[in-house]
Every structure is written in structure tokens, then in C-alpha cells.
Write a structure and sequence with these properties.
seven-stranded mixed beta sheet, 2 domains, Leu-bd, five-stranded parallel beta sheet, alpha/beta, Rossmann fold, signal, Branched-chain amino acid ABC transporter substrate-binding protein, 12 helices
């Protein structure tokens, strides 16, 4: 789940996450027909590199909608709230967003664990929430998703595919592509990381691979010497990590410094150039999966990339920025459908009328976004199942395998 100033080999342009940023509240025309799209993501602290990419992905979509008059007579603005990757803060932000009479929907959050604290708030208000990055299967398919899928929240959608596919895709590439046979699996105990690691573990074992050992770390840990010792003694030829780049970048550095020259493989939470900057040369050869295909291989994303660059936006759009753009676009198109059905006028009751119509419109979404076809199944999951494996090569993420996983 995902800092250079040039287009990488994959086209994954990233920018520094430090420095000043605006609050993302541009686009207000001052008229009564201005609607707000909320954004919830970590905009400071850990995970802010990818969180800011989400904020500005939405901002570009809103600016495009206003400039090109996507919904005649209606303007949009962005209200970006910082959840600091904390579930309690995310829940508070969700309460704030649904309490605003002009807020029609929300994009976010970045983290699956934060999403769990927000879903009920949005459902109670019948307001749509679309995450461009959440990948835990339980969010859309329920706690028993492996045996009996049941959608728990009708207002929750995502433009990112799930860990059920991502974990299996990674395991298949590790076993068949890299020819690795003995994996050590570690996670950060969080909803996203633990779930992803569990799926990789099961998929790798099913393929015939051996699990050399498993372990857990805490978010915020800095010293992984005891973990490194266990990995070294296990004889593993690959380390799989479920979690974010903050810890994994330190783990790989300490692992290589200890003479354990095996690749670290992780999920989209690791796919950020901050990982490479922090780990340095130790990151060479490490891998990460991420949702979709490299942005610059998609012609429709070309203008988005150029705009992100020209605006000098902070953060890293590479992992989720384009998916945030498509999530915001889905909300805007649903507003247009509601306006069209109301004789070209914005329904006067936003909280108790328009919000429900927007949820229905998003469920029916079917359009070409900048990431490909945007549509959702009966669970609210994206029907775009593309995934990509990236590998660090000469200090940059390079796409090495794009495809789908069918189990």
C-alpha cells in the first residue's frame, strides 16, 4: 500500500513527502450547488507518502470535473482529513464527514484497519465510501469470506483488488518465477499485514513451498536483530513481509547487514520509494506487489501523471493516486446520474436523498477510468483484477510481472 523526482522505469513517478501542503479544500465556487468529497488518509507521519498520493489523486479528479463541467450546475470541492493511520482518528473523521450537509461521499482510507472503524459510520448515514487501497477481503466479503461470502456494508466499495488475489499472486511469483522453495513469513500484527501474510503462507505451501518459520513485529519497532537471527538460522531463501514500508525497509537493511542475502518480498504497503530511500543498497532485488498495472503503461493516465508533476504535489501517486482519481470520478458520475434523473437539478435533500442515490449510482458504475474499466461486483469489490510485481533495480522500482490471479 504504498521519492524520486523523475519517472521511474515503471512510470511510477514519486515526489518528496516533506514540505508544506494545502488542505485540499479548493474548488468551492461559493454557490449553493457545491458538493464536498471527503478524503481520509494518513497525511502526516507514517504512511503519509502514499496517503498524500490519495489526497491529490482526488483533487485532480475534482479539478477536472469542475473545469470540464462534468455535472452542469454543480461544483465540487475536497475536504482532506488526516487519520494518521489510526483507527480511532479515522472513525472521528468519518463522523465529521457524514455530519456535513454538503458532503456527498468519501475516498479512503489507506489502511484496512482504519477502514474497519469507519464502515459503520458511513453505512449509518447511507453515504458512499470508496477506498483506492484497502485490500483485506473481510471489508467487502465478511469475516467468513473464505467459506461464506456476505457483504457487511452496502456503502463501502474499493478500486483496489483484494489480498486474496495479491497474496496468491505473490506466492506464485516467488515459487514459480523466482524458484524460491523456503520462505520465512513475518507480519506487523495489523489487519492488512497479518491478513496478507496468512494468505501468502497458505498459497506458498499449497504450491509445494516450505515455510521455514513465522514471526510478528510491532509497528514502530526499529531493532530487528532477534528476528534477523531467527531468519538466518531458518535457512530461508526468501522473506515475505506483511505490513508497511516503515518497518520492512529497516528489516531488509538489518538482514543484509547481517550477511543474509535473501530478497524481502512484500505487498502494496511496501510499494513506495521511501522504502528504497530508507533501505538504500540493501533494497536491491527486493520485491513488492501492487494493485493494477504501472500508470505510465495506461494511455488514459498520461494526463493525470503530467498534472501531478506540474502541480508539484507532495507524496507518491504511484501506488494509489490513479485509483483515488477513479474513485472520486465514480462518485461524481453517480451525482450526475442523480441530477439527470431529477430533471437536471440537484436534489435538495442531500443527506436523506442524494446520498442514497449516489450509493446506488456507484454500485451501477461502468466506465473507462484512467486505471481501466471501473465497475463493482455484488460485494463492492472492483472487477479490475490486474496486479503487478515490482522489483528494486538500480535504486528504482521496476515492473517485472503483470497479470491476474485466479486461485
Amino acid at each position: 500500500m504504498v521519492i524520486l523526482t523523475s519517472v521511474l522505469t515503471t512510470g511510477a513517478l514519486t515526489l518528496t513527502a516533506c514540505g508544506s501542503r494545502d488542505n485540499g479544500k479548493s474548488g468551492d465556487s461559493g454557490s449553493g450547488n457545491t458538493l464536498t468529497i471527503g478524503v481520509d488518509a494518513p497525511l502526516s507521519g507514517e504512511n503519509s507518502t502514499t496517503g498524500l498520493g490519495i489526497q491529490y489523486g482526488v483533487q485532480i479528479a475534482v479539478d477536472d470535473a469542475n473545469k470540464n463541467n462534468w455535472v452542469p450546475g454543480v461544483k465540487f470541492k475536497v475536504n482532506a482529513l488526516d487519520d494518521k493511520a489510526q483507527p480511532a482518528t479515522g472513525q472521528s473523521n468519518a463522523t465529521s464527514l457524514v455530519g456535513d450537509d454538503k458532503t456527498i461521499g468519501a475516498v479512503g482510507p489507506l489502511n484496512s484497519g482504519v477502514a474497519q472503524s469507519m464502515q459503520q459510520v458511513f453505512t449509518s448515514a447511507n453515504m458512499v465510501e470508496i477506498s483506492p487501497s484497502n485490500t483485506n477481503p473481510e471489508l467487502t466479503q465478511g469475516k467468513n469470506w473464505q467459506t461464506s461470502k456476505k457483504r457487511p456494508f452496502k456503502t463501502y466499495f474499493r478500486t483496489a483488488t483484494t489480498d486474496a488475489l495479491q497474496g496468491g499472486f505473490a506466492a506464485t511469483y516467488a515459487y514459480n518465477g523466482l524458484k524460491k522453495k523456503k520462505a520465512f513469513v513475518v507480519d506487523d500484527k495489523q489487519t492488512y499485514g497479518a491478513g496478507l501474510a496468512k494468505i501468502f503462507n497458505a498459497s506458498f505451501s499449497k504450491l509445494g513451498g516450505k515455510i521455514a518459520g513465522t514471526d510478528h513485529v510491532n509497528t514502530g519497532d526499529k531493532d530487528f536483530s532477534s528476528l534477523v537471527t531467527r531468519i538466518k538460522k531458518s535457512g530461508a531463501d526468501i522473506l515475505y513481509y506483511g505490513g508497511q514500508y516503515d518497518e520492512s525497509s529497516l528489516i531488509t537493511k538489518q538482514l543484509k547487514d547481517a550477511g543474509v542475502k535473501i530478497p524481502l518480498f512484500g505487498g502494496d504497503g511496501m510499494f513506495a520509494s521511501t522504502y528504497i530511500e530508507t533501505a538504500g543498497k540493501a533494497s536491491e532485488g527486493d520485491l513488492a506487489t501492487s494493485v493494477g498495472v504501472p500508470a505510465d503503461t495506461l494511455p488514459a493516465a498520461k494526463q493525470f501523471i503530467q498534472t501531478y508533476k506540474s502541480k508539484g504535489y507532495k507524496g507518491d501517486y504511484a501506488a494509489y493516486g490513479a485509483y483515488a482519481y477513479d474513485a472520486a470520478t465514480a462518485i461524481i458520475k453517480a451525482v450526475k446520474a442523480a441530477v439527470d434523473a431529477n430533471g437536471g437539478k440537484l436534489p435538495s435533500d442531500i443527506k436523506n436523498g442524494l446520498r442514497a442515490k449516489v450509493v446506488d449510482g456507484v454500485q451501477k458504475a461502468n466506465f473507462e477510468g484512467i486505471t481501466g474499466k471501473v465497475s463493482f461486483d455484488q460485494y463492492g469489490d472492483t472487477q479490475n483484477k490486474q496486479l503487478t510485481v515490482y522489483q528494486v533495480e538500480n535504486g528504482k522500482w521496476k515492473a517485472v510481472k503483470t497479470g491476474t490471479f485466479n486461485g
